[in-house]
Write a structure and sequence with these properties.
The complex is a heterodimer of chains A (322) and B (327). Chain A has 322 residues and is α/β, with parallel strands linked by helices. Chain A contains 12 helices and 12 strands. Chain B folds into 2 domains: 71 residues, no CATH class; 231 residues, MetI-like fold, CATH 1.10.3720.10. Chain B is built from 12 helices and 2 strands. The C terminus of chain B is likely disordered. The chains are: A alpha/beta (322), B mainly alpha (327). Bound molecules: adenosine-5'-diphosphate and magnesium ion. Chain A: InterPro entries: AAA+_ATPase, ABC_Ni/Peptide_Import, ABC_transporter-like_ATP-bd, ABC_transporter-like_CS, Oligopep_ABC_C, P-loop_NTPase. Chain A: Pfam families: ABC_tran (PF00005), oligo_HPY (PF08352).
C-alpha cells in the first residue's frame, strides 16, 4: 500500500495583510522504504510541506485545502492528541540544526528513553538498552558511557547522529529529514548522509530528504520532487530527472551539479529571484525567469500532469511553442 | 567545581573586607567618639588617655585591622544608645526579619512560578490576562502604599489580621519564632504579602517571558516532532530551561527582600533588624549601623555564592567535565 499520499495540499497563513499560501496544491506519493529527494530554492515551501505532514504548522497558518493520508488513513484533520501519537511513532522528523535540536539540560539518554517510552510500552531498563543500541547504530563510540552525558559534550556531527537516533528510535515508517546536513561542517556532511542512507536500507523507513545538494539527491534518493514558489513543478525517478529534466527550472538546478562546498541560495544560472508568496504572478510562477517562456506561460498556470511517479507542470511539455 | 568554590570564597573575602572598610570609615566620619565618652570639660590629657585606651592614637590601618578582627568574631562593641552589645541586639532582632523574608520569598516562588507558567501557556485566557494586568499594577505601586492599603482593608475594615507587631512568639534557644502560634502566623500574613508582592510579580513576569522564549526554541520543536506529551514538553523540557535564569534573579532579589524589609518593618512596626537599623540611623548609633551593614552584606555574599553553585548544578553546560566529545 502507498505509505504516504498528499493530495492538493494548500497551507495558508491568515495575516493582517490578507491570506498568503505558503504552499499550493501540493500532491505527492511515497511508497514504503522509498527515498524522495526534495529540492528547490529557499522559501519554495519544502519545510512547510514537511511541517504539514507531521501536523506541526503553527498558527496563523493552517491547512486550507487538500488531504494527507498515511497508510490510507487521513491524518490532516486528526485531533491534536491523535496526531501527537503519530509523530515520532509513525512519522519521524530530523531538523536542520543539530546544535539547537537537543535539550541542553537533559542527557542524551534521558531524551532517547523518554521518546522510546512515549511510544513503545517498555520498562525503563529495556528502553535504556534500546537507547544504547540506537546510539551504537548511529555510530556513537562507547554508547554505554556516552548515554549519560549531555548534548554539549558531543561535536556537531555526533549531535546530528543523536538527532537521527531520536527520530528513528520509535521505529517510524516515514522520516522527514529537513536539510539534515546544512548546518554541519562540510567534512561530516557526507558521513551523516551515508548513515541516513544505510539506516533507511536497514530499517526500511521511507525518507523525504530535503536538501540543496543535487549531488546528495543523485546518490541517495530514488525519486526527486522539485518545488518552486510553493508548488511542485516536477517529480520523477532521480536518474530520469537528472538525465532529462523537463521543467526549465529543474534544468537550471541540474546545471548546478556537481559542486562542492556551500551552495548559494540564488541559482547563478537563472536570472532573477523566486517571487514571494504574496507576489506570485497569475501564470507560471517561473515564467518571469524562464528562458523558454512563450504565449500561455504568463497568463495560464500549467497543471502538474503525468503519473504520481513522473509528472511535470510546464506548458512546454503539453503544448508546442508556436 | 572545587576551584570555582575556592575562587568564589576568596572573592567573597575581598568583598567583605571592602564592606568592613566602609563600616569602619563610618565611625571616622560620624564625629569624634571621644567627645561622647568624656565629660564636657575634660582636659587634653584626659582626652588623650581615653584616645589611647580606645586605640585611636594608633595608625589607621592598625585600627582597621583590629576592627576587622573583632568583627570577624561578631564583636561590634556596644550600642551608643543603650550600651548593650551590638551583637546581642542584632541576634534578638534577626529571627523576626529572617522569618518575614523567608515567608515572603517562599510565597513569591510558590505563587510566582505557577502563575508565570499559566500566563505563558494560556496567554489569551481570562485569568492570564487579568494576572498580567494585576502584575503591572503590583510592579508599579510603591510597596508602602500596598502595605497601608492592606492594613486598611484587612485590619481596619475587616478586622481579620493585626496591623502591627509579631503576635505571640515562642523561644527556641536564642531564636524567637512566630511560626508556632496562631497569633504569630496571623501577624506574618500582611507584612509578608506586602514584602513579597514586588518579587512575586517580578518572578511571574520573568517566568512567563523565559517560558515563551524557551517554547520557541528548536529543541522544543523537535520534542513536539517526536510526539512527546504536552505535559512533558512544558514541565520537563521547557520548565527546567526556564528556571535556570529565574534562579539567578531570585537569588539577587532575595538580598533585595532583606533591604526592602526595612520599609515593611517600619510600616508594620515589625521588630526586626530593619526597624533596629532605622532606629540606629535616627539616633546616630554608629556601631549598630556598621554591624547591620556588615551583616546584610555577608548575607548577600552568601546568597550570591549559593546561587552560582546552584546554577552550576542546574545547568550541565557549566559543570566542569573531563570528557569532551570528539568528531
Ligand atoms: N509564519 C509564516 N507566515 C507567513 N508565511 C510564512 C510563514 N512561515 C513561512 N512562510 C512562507 O512559506 C513559504 C515556504 O517556506 P519554507 O517551507 O520554510 O521554505 P523552504 O523550506 O523551502 O526554504 C515561504 O515563502 C515563507 O515566506
Ligand atoms: Mg526550509
Amino acid at each position: 500500500m502507498t505509505l504516504l499520499s498528499v493530495k492538493n495540499l494548500t497551507v495558508a497563513f491568515f495575516g493582517r495583510s490578507g491570506t498568503v499560501n505558503a504552499i499550493e496544491d501540493v500532491s505527492l506519493e511515497l511508497e514504503p522504504g522509498e527515498i524522495l529527494g526534495m529540492v528547490g530554492e529557499s522559501g519554495a515551501g519544502k519545510s512547510m510541506t514537511g511541517a504539514a505532514i507531521i501536523g506541526l504548522i503553527e498558527p496563523p497558518g493552517r491547512i486550507s485545502a487538500g488531504e494527507i493520508r498515511l497508510e490510507g488513513e487521513r491524518i490532516d484533520n486528526l485531533p491534536p492528541e491523535a496526531i501527537r501519537r503519530i509523530r515520532g511513532r509513525r512519522i519521524g522528523a530530523i531538523f536542520q540544526d543539530p546544535l539547537t535540536s537537543l535539550n541542553p539540560v537533559l542527557t542524551v539518554g534521558e531524551q532517547l528513553i523518554e521518546t522510546i517510552r512515549t511510544h513503545l510500552k517498555l520498562p525503563r531498563e529495556a528502553a535504556r538498552a534500546r537507547a544504547i543500541d540506537w546510539l551504537r547504530r548511529v555510530g556513537i563510540p562507547a554508547p554505554e558511557a556516552r548515554i549519560d552525558t549531555y548534548p554539549h559534550q558531543y561535536s556537531g556531527g555526533m549531535r546530528q547522529r543523536v538527532v537521527i537516533a531520536l527520530a528513528l528510535c520509535a521505529e517510524p515508517r516515514l522520516v522527514i529529514a529537513d536539510e539534515p546536513t546544512t548546518a554541519l561542517d562540510v567534512s561530516v556532511q557526507a558521513q551523516v548522509i551515508a548513515l541516513l542512507r544505510q539506516l533507511a536500507r536497514e530499517t526500511g523507513v521511507a525518507v523525504i530528504l530535503v536538501t540543496h545538494d543535487m549531488g546528495v539527491i543523485a546518490e541517495t534518493a530514488d525519486r526527486v520532487a522539485v518545488m518552486y514558489a510553493g508548488r511542485i513543478v516536477e517529480v520523477g525517478p532521480v536518474a530520469e530527472v537528472l538525465r532529462a529534466p523537463r521543467h526549465p527550472y529543474t534544468s537550471g538546478l541540474m546545471a548546478s551539479i556537481p559542486r562542492i562546498g556551500p551552495r548559494p541560495e540564488v541559482l547563478p544560472q537563472i536570472e532573477g529571484a523566486m517571487p514571494r508568496p504574496h507576489a506570485r504572478p497569475p501564470g507560471c510562477a517561473f515564467a518571469p525567469r524562464c528562458p523558454h517562456r512563450f504565449v500561455p506561460c504568463t497568463d495560464e498556470r500549467p497543471e502538474l500532469t503525468g503519473t504520481p511517479v513522473r509528472s511535470v507542470a510546464c506548458h512546454l511539455t503539453t503544448e508546442v511553442p508556436a | 567545581m572545587l576551584g570555582f568554590l575556592v575562587r568564589r570564597v576568596i572573592q567573597s573575602v575581598f568583598v567583605m573586607l571592602a564592606v568592613a572598610l566602609i563600616a569602619f570609615l563610618m565611625f571616622r566620619f560620624m564625629g569624634d567618639p571621644v567627645n561622647s565618652m568624656v565629660a564636657e570639660n575634660a582636659s587634653t590629657e584626659e582626652r588623650a588617655a581615653v584616645r589611647e585606651r580606645l586605640g585611636l592614637d594608633q595608625p589607621l590601618w592598625l585600627q582597621y585591622g583590629r576592627f576587622v578582627a573583632r568583627a570577624a568574631q561578631g564583636d561590634f562593641g556596644l550600642s551608643w544608645r543603650n550600651a548593650r552589645p551590638v551583637s546581642t541586639l542584632l541576634a534578638e532582632r534577626f529571627p523576626a526579619t529572617a522569618e518575614l523574608v523567608l515567608v515572603a520569598a517562599v510565597l513569591s516562588l510558590v505563587l510566582g512560578i505557577p502563575l508565570g507558567i499559566l500566563t505563558a501557556l494560556r496567554p489569551r485566557s481570562f485569568p492570564a490576562q487579568s494576572l498580567q494586568l494585576i502584575s503591572l499594577i503590583g510592579i508599579s505601586l510603591p510597596t508602602f502604599v500596598t502595605g497601608i492599603l492592606l492594613i486598611l482593608v484587612f485590619s481596619v475594615w475587616l478586622g481579620w489580621l493585626p496591623s502591627f507587631g509579631r503576635g505571640d512568639v515562642v523561644d527556641i534557644g536564642w531564636w524567637s519564632t512566630g511560626f508556632f502560634t496562631l497569633a504569630g502566623l496571623k501577624a506574618l500574613i500582611l507584612p509578608s504579602i506586602m514584602l513579597c508582592l514586588f518579587q512575586l510579580t517580578l518572578i511571574m513576569r520573568l517566568v512567563r517571558a523565559e517560558m515563551l522564549e524557551v517554547l520557541r526554541t528548536d529543541y522544543i520543536k523537535f520534542a513536539r516532532a517526536r510526539g512527546l506529551s504536552n505535559r512533558s514538553i512544558h514541565f520537563r523540557h521547557a520548565l527546567k530551561n526556564t528556571l535556570i535564569p529565574v534562579i539567578t534573579i531570585f537569588g539577587l532579589q532575595l538580598g533585595g527582600l532583606i533591604a526592602f524589609a526595612i520599609v515593611t518593618e517600619t510600616v508594620f512596626q515589625w521588630p526586626g533588624m530593619g526597624a533596629l537599623f532605622i532606629q540606629a540611623v535616627s539616633f546616630g548609633d554608629v556601631p549598630v549601623m556598621a554591624a547591620y551593614l556588615v551583616l546584610v552584606s555577608l548575607i548577600f555574599v552568601i546568597i550570591n555564592t549559593t546561587v552560582d553553585l546552584l546554577y552550576a548544578v542546574l545547568d550541565p553546560r557549566l559543570r566542569v567535565d573531563g570528557a569532551r566529545g570528539a568528531h
